[in-house]
Design a protein that fits this description.
The protein is mainly alpha-helical. Helix content is about 70%, strand content about 0%. Helix 3 runs antiparallel to helix 4, helix 40 packs antiparallel against helix 41 and helix 40 packs parallel to helix 42. The radius of gyration is 36 Å and the shape is flat. The two termini are about 30 Å apart.
Length: about 950
């Protein structure tokens, strides 16, 4: 490809971005010729667009196509890059071209140190000092830009593990020299542009790694920039970033004394944070400073905590803790007029986790010191979690952020409890009693009431270990006296949530149900409180089945009334589930009147809708039909009286069989069929232990299942049949029906797949996933249902799974792996299955090769490794032959690897039959090389 052709294509691309022209440019960048042509494009007389394209192409060649270059051309390439870069600097060329050339040079350095270009960094600095003709300012900027780009390029370059370690070691050895240059620039009266470059360079090199003992004096240098009022805000922010890199690098933790020396200097910056005020716009500098101190807390929290025990460091460490508390207590409401407080949640988690994981018992000295801090934190969080008065004026996004923020506070309340235990309950209960001492106070200070209840709800789970707790007894007793009709609904809802959170506590304190159940019934009658009250009732009913029995009639009668008013389906489903739990406690047939009251209206509604003969009219009521089925499913799932369940399902089956499900399938995407299948799945799970009823139920379930499946094979039917096989495969009387149904399903799926066009096959992922899951479970649990069936085409199933192994949908690939591993492991015991592998195993290996060489997304590698591992253990000799035939005889190209590398890889795979993890490492590295994610010189 000539230079004129490329320049013409580039000009046309900038005009109309033609796809064909774009392909020409990509082909050029991938060609060998590009190595030579880019230098003409980088001539300083060329237009800016051509120069930048040339620089970009050169960078792509070095980073992605390095193996195209001969080793003998390394030095020539280096000299050309240096000469070109110096020309651009001396001629004040375009900034973006110079920047890209800097990255080209750095990419070259990463590729050639330490073996091909030792002492690269000192030589670079010396070269530019001697070659640049302009002032020392430009020399400094030039050197800093190159040095700044080098760590970035190292981080972006994919190298094999050993090479990466070698390059990192070389860079770390040069870091002291680089940082000393930066230090000298920052200490001088350099202009802001040079200071900006120096600070960026410092942050980049500090991230690589350094010796804190030799570099800690940089702390003073960075702080002087931050406190210098004459420096621009950009310089200040970059200085904070650089200081954070120095203070929080993992390598600093080994230098305890030096770390404390650094922290004692850094803490002077906290003066900017202790007197925060609400501002209309976030203070960027304050935000950065909080990030600095929180980064220090994350990296050195154990050091800071232990420092509390040392007389010499206690005052310093206490200042840090007070700073974090100040940050949490930032004035204003998150996220409207403060965005600092949420940054501290991770620190509080790490602190309590570290304290407790180090076997800190109740008498631990550290806990004694830290507890007052957590008492203050609890009080601060109560203030921060409280609702603002003007919440309605917030935007939806702000309200959602505040909701998530409250959830983070809920977690942090839990951390406080782990440290404080009963002391936290004392704090919460004291504040709660103060604001609920009378109705007027509770109504006026409802935000604090709600916040206290929210905190009690948050710590309910860790309190489960306490069978008796006087604080909770007092709390539950006081809930009765809240003015629910007058107080803000958020506080009323919080009360219902608190009751529900302590459902387990009711089991050991059944006498409190006398107070709680009437409250919940009141909540059910209130539309605002209904959701929280119904959740609480559901959980309490499940936990306290026996002790709640005296209140069953009250609950059921209330449910009858409120179900007529409920508008949301999910709330109706939840309450019906609770009704099922309550009905299960009462013996049959005593509970039959209530059963009929709740079941019959839904059955009648289903019958009436199914009786509609007009398609258009039926469509109008279709969603209501689905809703009634979902409600019945919720009720049946909660009832555990098999006699009742069997009576219910007979009524349901009679309804469904009368209509023949004529309306249940309107399209392959029909969700009504899925809802019916979900109901049937619930039913068969309830009858699993009733052998006699099981056989009859299986027949009815499969009959309905297949009516829909014959119209349009759907995942729901496959999932339902899988459950039936798993549950009833143990019963000999069910096996003939399961076998015949399995055979028909296999034939229909194959027919559907063969009739579908390639485009339609692409949309069958859900069906394929459910089908392969069914096959996998059968081969793992009841293989006798599948094997020796002459009408099932296992070659089709095997090839379908092999194709699915390459799917972009990871769950489909995992399901294919699930089936293939089960099938391969079973195949040695069955001749027909062995023949499938023997004849078609090469097809599977071809798909494995496709995944290896990068035709498929790399997340499929680990799932593929499981198949490769099982295949190697069962068919090692076959695998060796298949590998050889595909790669050598068929000459399938594996990019970026030599014949020697292929041979070595295949030998390692065939040898590795004991460790799946080792095989994954081998496969992943080889695939990354094939994909160009790791570049390796095959001659080394």
């Amino acid at each position: 490809m000539s230079l004129e052709t490329v320049e013409h294509a580039l000009a046309e691309f900038y005009c109309n971005q033609n796809v064909e022209v774009h392909k020409i440019l990509l082909d050029f960048q991938n060609s060998i010729d590009a190595w030579n042509l880019v230098w003409s494009m980088l001539d300083t007389s060329k237009p800016h667009e051509i120069q930048f394209f040339g620089a970009t192409t050169l960078h792509i060649k070095i980073t992605k196509q390095w193996l195209q270059l001969k080793r003998t051309d390394y030095v020539l390439l280096r000299d050309k890059i240096l000469d070109t870069l110096i020309k651009y600097y001396n001629s004040s060329g375009p900034t973006n071209v110079i920047n890209k050339l800097c990255y080209c040079l750095c990419a070259y350095v990463v590729r050639t140190i330490p073996h091909h270009w030792p002492d690269a960094i000192p030589q670079l600095m010396e070269t530019f000092r001697n070659s640049l003709s302009q002032s020392s300012i430009n020399v400094s900027v030039m050197i800093l830009e190159i040095l700044m780009a080098l760590p970035d390029e190292f981080g972006a370059t994919k190298l094999v593990h050993t090479q990466r370690n070698e390059v990192r070691k070389e860079l770390q050895q040069s870091s002291l020299q680089v940082l000393s240059i930066v230090d000298s620039i920052l200490k001088s009266d350099s202009l802001d542009p040079i200071v900006v470059h120096a600070l960026k360079c410092a942050a980049a090199w500090l991230d690589i790694g350094f010796d804190l003992i030799k570099c800690h004096q940089l702390t003073d240098t960075f702080i002087s920039v931050i406190l210098n009022p004459e420096r621009s805000q950009v310089c200040v922010l970059l200085a904070i970033d650089a200081l954070k890199s120095l203070c929080t690098h993992p390598r600093t933790s080994v230098c305890v004394a030096t770390v404390f020396e650094v922290l004692s200097k850094v803490i002077v910056l906290s003066d900017k944070l202790f007197h925060l005020e609400i501002t209309e716009e976030p203070n960027i500098v304050v935000d950065k400073l909080f990030d600095l101190f929180l980064g220090i807390g994350d990296q050195h929290f154990r050091l800071i905590v232990q420092g509390l025990l040392n007389d010499n460091t206690r005052e310093l460490c206490t200042k840090f803790f007070n700073l974090y508390l100040t940050c949490t207590n930032a004035p204003g409401y998150y996220p409207v007029n403060e965005n600092y407080s949420e940054k501290t949640f991770t620190f509080w988690f790490l602190l309590q986790d570290d304290l407790l994981s180090n076997d800190a018992g109740p008498d631990n000295t550290l806990l004694t010191i830290v507890k007052p801090l957590y008492v203050s934190l609890t009080q601060v969080l109560l203030k921060k979690v409280a609702y603002p008065e003007n919440l309605d004026t917030w935007t939806p996004d702000e309200r959602e952020l505040f909701r998530c923020y409250r959830q983070d506070i809920s977690d942090t309340f839990t951390y406080c409890y782990f440290i404080l235990q009963s002391e936290m309950l004392d704090v919460l209960l004291t504040i709660y009693k103060q604001v609920t001492c009378d109705h007027e106070t509770a109504i006026a200070q409802w935000q604090t009431v709600e916040a206290c209840l929210y905190a009690f709800t948050a710590i309910s789970e860790p309190l489960q270990s306490h069978k008796s707790h006087p604080h909770i007894e007092q709390l539950m007793s006081s809930l009765v006296s809240l003015p629910y009709e007058q107080i803000d609904q958020k506080a009323s809802i919080a009360a219902m949530d608190t009751i529900g959170a302590y459902y387990y506590w009711m089991k050991t304190h059944p006498s409190y149900l006398e107070l709680i159940v009437p409250l919940l019934m009141t909540g059910l009658h209130n539309s605002n409180m209904f959701s929280s009250a119904s959740i609480a009732l559901r959980d309490i009913a499940k936990e306290c089945r026996k002790s709640i029995a005296p209140y069953n009639d009250v609950i059921l009668n209330t449910a009858i009334v409120v179900l007529k008013k409920v508008k949301k389906l999910k709330e109706e489903i939840r309450l019906m589930n609770t009704v099922g739990v309550i009905l299960s406690v009462t013996s049959y047939p005593k509970n039959k009147p209530f059963l009929d009251t709740f079941i019959n209206p839904n059955l009648d509604a289903i019958a009436n809708i199914l009786a509609i003969e007009d398609n258009a009219e039926f469509t109008k009521h279709r969603s209501e039909l689905q809703n009634r089925i979902k409600v019945l499913n919720s009720l049946v799932s909660a009832i555990d009286i098999n006699v009742v369940v069997y009576e219910i399902i007979q009524n349901i089956f009679n309804l469904l069989q009368k209509t023949g499900m004529k309306y249940f399938i309107s399209s392959p995407e029909d969700t009504l069929y899925a809802d019916v299948c979900e109901l049937l799945k619930t039913i068969i799970s309830k009858l699993m232990q009733e052998r006699e009823n099981c056989v009859v139920a299986t027949t009815m379930v499969i009959e309905i299942l297949m009516i829909g499946f014959r119209k349009s094979p759907q995942p729901a039917g496959l999932i339902l049949f899988k459950e039936a096989v798993i549950m009833f495969g143990q019963y000999e009387a069910s096996i003939p029906l399961l076998k015949s149904t399995y055979e028909e399903i296999c034939m229909r799926v194959k027919f559907m797949f063969e009739q579908a066009s390639p485009a339609d096959q692409f949309n069958l992922g859900d069906v394929i996933e459910a089908y392969l899951s069914l096959q996998g479970h059968i081969f793992r649990k009841w293989p006798f249902i599948a094997v020796d069936n002459p009408n099932v085409d296992f070659i089709f199933v095997f090839k379908l799974a092999s194709e699915a192994l390459c799917a972009n949908e990871i769950f489909l690939a995992k399901t294919a792996t699930f089936f293939l591993t089960a099938f391969i492991n079973s195949s040695r015991e069955h001749r027909a299955l062995y023949k499938v592998i023997d004849d078609n195993g090469q097809f599977l290996v071809m798909k494995i090769i496709c995944i290896l060489k990068g035709d498929v997304v790399k997340r499929n590698l680990d799932t593929m490794c499981e198949v490769l591992y099982v295949l190697n253990r069962n068919y090692g000799e076959h695998l060796s032959r298949w590998f050889h035939d595909i790669v050598t005889v068929q000459n399938i190209v594996l990019p970026n690897v030599t014949e020697q590398m292929k041979s070595k890889f295949f030998k390692r795979v065939l040898k590795e039959r004991s460790s799946k993890k080792t095989l994954q490492v081998v496969v992943r590295e080889f695939s990354f090389i094939c994909r160009g994610l790791i570049l390796i010189d095959p001659t080394e």
